[in-house]
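Lesson 9: reading folded outputs for more than one chain in a single document. The general rule is that every protein is listed as its sequence immediately followed by its structure tokens, and records are never interleaved. Here is the first one.
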Amino acid sequence: MFDKRFVPRQVVASGGNRWDWALLPLVLALLFALAWGGSQMARPYELGETLPISLDPWMLPYYLLRTTLRMFLALGASLVFSCLFAVVATKYRSAEKVLVPLLDILQSIPILGFLSITVTGFIALFPGNLLGVECAAIFAIFTSQAWNMAFSLYQSLRTVPAELREAAQVFQLSGWQRFWRLELPFAMPGLLWNMMMSMSGGWFFVVASEAISVSNQNIKLPGVGSYIAMAIEARDLGAIGWAIAGMLIGITLYDQLFFRPLIAWADKFKFEEGSSEDSPNSWLLTWLRRTDRIKHAVHRVTGLLDRSVALFRRDHDGTSIKARPQPANPTAVRIWDAIVAAAVLVAVLWLTRFIHTEVGWREVGHVFLLGLYTMLRVLVLIALAALVWVPIGVWIGMNPRWAGRLQGVAQFMAAFPANLMFPVAVLFIVRWHLNPNIWLAPLMVLGTQWYLLFNVIAGASSVPTELRYAAQNLGLKGWLMWRRYLLPAVFPSFVTGAITASGGSWNASIVAEYVTWGDTTLKAAGLGSYIAEMTAIGDFPRIALGIGVMCVFVMGMNHFVWRRLYDLAENRMHF
């Protein structure tokens, strides 16, 4: 993953020293802000204590620091989870049979479901300390980031070109070396774009994660999410405007200081023989590369990583018997399949008993019918979003200069809390007497359509430069160019974006099909409104039924639609 190109040749010493002294105040300020924010997150706390949240705009920088720190902690946990999931799922077929459906289920569970289960446990884990509530909030943000990144890395590891795999075999790389030297670098461009999408997607759920209800107590953690929640309760449009401005500043800062340097650095991992004439750039990365002390620190870190990778090398060569591929033990495979089938059978029996005693079969039929309504909306919306964002994403990805200019704009649009648009939709529908079953549907895709855009941009930006030249030399134009060149190039990334956008739309249906603003409530017939209604009245058996049916629909779509497209992308539609 790391090579010496990361550290360019040394420039003149005077320039390097000047950059050192210019960089020192920035580093000290960041370290102080992180240390201060971390100390505030771990202060003593008694359950029932009211944390003061002010709508004063001067408090927004502090709230923004707390929220951003939570989101980056969740992003780090999501990255570790994604690596573990993708490696295990792609290396072991038996584990893949369980992990991929499990990820489908986790993706379809609403964030409120995770909060209701985990908040009490985290508070009990850290009694008398705010760290328990902070961990619950970070975990909630983690659930809005991890699934997208895990699917992206899983898709990349399954579509590593055959010639690269053969090269890894020729060089006798161990599994650990192959991951760090081949698979993770190959997946890095797409993974970084999905990390950006995950950070932006976390803003959609930041209100729910920072304004927590537990044990009949409402806990509002200091942060932008709590600020927005209080502004909505007070109907303070000015405070909402200040919150949006604060979000814009925060997104611009971490885009310039974190994601843009990583995107420019990861451009060297593109799978191509030549070099791109117009590659991404970052002023901060150029600054760091001209700093002597940063270069020395990078040399030391990369040296340690190189030595750690060498520790896990193979202890045999390619002629050894150990080098021969070992087929799976059929007996062990049958035993594992039997265990999985038994677990599924037990779950089905338990579910049948639950339905018979708690809700009844007629209610199940009604809920499945509502699920069909929501599924129809999801499929139509994903198709319409694909028609709009696939061409735009391909154009942005093929033009690195515009990608750099629009990167921050796309992150802000993806991070904009879609629930702030719900009051406008309610007023519009009521004013023009429109049908809520139709006009509430677009709210489901407001926050999830960006998964498509970011993944298509990642796929298009990873297309080898020589392939672009070949398409130009052959004179490919119009539909022939899309069918033979562009669509196969972005198809694996599109499938990943479609899976996450679909799962996110199912999740968003809970708030999009049942919208309230003041005394006005609009409801569209669907599974999301059913779960929202049952949650409002506290009918837990029907809440569980609604979430269970949603999991069934999401898993069914992933298995019969998206998984087949995954196989097509792995076998035919990729370069």
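And here is the second record, again sequence then tokens.
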Amino acid sequence: MKAMLARISNLPRDKADTLLLLASALLVLIPHTAHLPLWVSLLCGATLAWRAAITLQGKRMPPSLLLLPLAGGAMLGVMHSYQTLLGRDAGVAMLVLLVAFKMLEMHARRDLFVVVFLCFFLVLTNFFYEQGIVTALLMALSVLLLFTAQMSFQFAGAVPPLRERFLMSARMLGLAAPLALALFFLFPRIQGPLWGLPGDAGGARTGLSETMAPGMMANLAQSQEVAFRVKFEGAPPPREQLYWRGPVLGDYDGRTWTRVGAARRQGLEDRRLALSVAGEPLRYEVTLEPANNRWLFALEMPERLPGVAGNAAQLSAEVEMTTLLPIAVRLRYQVASFVHYRLQADALPFDADQWLQLPGDSNPRALMAGMQLRAIPDPARRVDTVLRGFRSEHYVYTLNPPLLGRDAVDGFLYGSRAGFCEHYAEAFVFLMRAAGIPARVVTGYQGGEINPLDGYLTVRQSDAHAWAEVWLARRGWVRIDPTAAVSPERVQRGMAGAIPPRPPFGIEGLGGLIGIDGAAHPWLLELRYAAGAMNNGWNQWVLNYTPQRQRGMVEQLQASLLDWRLPLWLGILAIVLLLVRTLRRRREVDPVDALYSALCTRLSRMGLARSADEGPQAYAARIAAAGRLAPEAAAAAQEFLHRYSGWRYAPRGADAHLATTLKRLLSQVR
């Protein structure tokens, strides 16, 4: 390894610059491997390795007769993989291949700059897929290396060491940073995602759907992706109250639960909900990650619809909050929710029949058990009877339940008795409907994790949950969580307290959520909190800098400019910067040059001003020919100028006493 590094450091300039360009391009291309087809990544890696071998071995470039069929085959491969050559994904794949193949066709100086400019454009395409802080830092490093490579090609003579070239590039970016920040904050923002072609905007994202079947929630619960973050105005409520309401499911075909059909929902949306609340509302702000769906999540029960910039919020008869358009960008909205409420408690809901329907040809044992519950006159006691059965009959809460057959509810209740939240929610709702109690499945998220560093509650896809609602006389729709009857830890402590511990660092199961033990690895937990706070700050202040926030900042800036104190402080700051610049310039003047300027000024007052194009030797000859100075002063001036000329134009040597000598000679010029 040391021999290889020594060999690289001793390479000729053209080879070293080419390897630097290859390293810069590789750093730009690496993030694209996460979304490109495997064959594209392998082909690009092989192409760059081929170019590096050619550079190190000093061989000739491959002929065009070889490159043209290779490029044509790559285009056909892209066409086969994406079924098009247009759009975001296909276009990025073509650009990546173009950069790789161009490396094998660098014959002239202009080809080097073509590769550099293509790489600059490719840096931007990384933000089509990921805009996190890690990607931003990696792309900033890529730009630094590209600047360094571009600068290396432009030196005509001796080339500074790589470290100095890198620092020069860093200074260039530092000088450009203030202008970039000003453009970021003041240039008009564009509403919408960074890339919005219809064919690319609907890419698959992790999140809740409008259907629920056994296994769907368990699969979602293994994702560590952030669903949304919440900032409460005061102290957050207890975890047992953190039920984030999402889709409400009412139609059941014996296997899958779906939302109530559009035909049955017609005319219900315009009815006013009978909602009574008590106590003070919880006020908070939600930062929702884009998932290309229309769900707005809030605690039960929201006071009113939130305002959504660039979109419109809607409320369904089942108290589902949605938007008119799919949410393709990060969204922030304020909500106020009442934890204590009664929904439609005055009378039997006008749509109660739709919450009692069951398929007649499925789950016969559960259907019979539910009908037997009707012998209990009090509906609330029927509910308690089923929950007691879940507690006492050895049901198990697990992420890996056995597969169920056609009659999934019967198989769960009387067979496996092991399931995730969707198994308990669907079995409970089925029994309640069979017992004559209106019931429905509610999906959403339960809980969340408070980050002590920034105070935000992070709700992940692993917090996805399903529970039930039943209608009881004089109480209205009541939330019942049958999972809490089997595993109270799921509600009190979250997934980490409900599922048995996994091996350290999440070798299986929930990735890292359960594997990280805060007691055993406190430093790892602190590191996770720090990373979460940093990412959240990046999202809040950079990625979520919307046109509305920009407009508010500009209005605030305009109001501040009308205040006399801001111009005063700006004036003081300008004066301080001017003084610092002046003092810095004074410190940067060489003392020998300062003495030379003093001599020229003194001779100018004696009528012997130096011309702008006159060097020290020519100046000395003109002074001697003029004869206007006394012999001692003329000799001192001659010696001064000869010594200064030797110091300025000859190879520099260590002359610690030159300034002292020149001061003495300057004093003799009178």
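What the second record shows: The first strand starts at residue 211 and ends at 212.
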